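Subject: sequence -> structure tokens, single chain

Hey, anyone have a minute? Need the predicted structure for the following. Not urgent.
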Amino acid sequence: MTDPVPAGGSADDPALELIAARFRVLGEVSRLKLIRALEPGERSVNELVVACGLTQANTSRHLQTLTDAGILGRRRDGTSVRYRIADPEILELCHLVCGGLRTGLEGRVQVLRSPGAFARRRPAAGRRLATAH
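Reply:
Had a minute. Here:
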């Protein structure tokens, strides 16, 4: 009889490696820009270059990485290639992360607006703030 695997799996759990690899692919601002630009629908490489403000070479490299990871799909359209989101759950993940960040930031803003927090006050007309010399 073998020992049961703990609920969290083993330290070398292959599933965790796959998850970490997916997050590494998403851990690049340019790739997130491309995903966001593709949210409304399919676009060509040239359209993505303009939408994201990246160079053609940089755009192509990131598109290849996202495609290799199964996040994007592509199809040939005459002489150009059009990209689309192949894994719609990526959008759900991005929306969840954004929602979590928004909630966390809203809570921090409330703390900073509380009476005990340092508040930036404008000096009265004609008065200057004291500065150290």
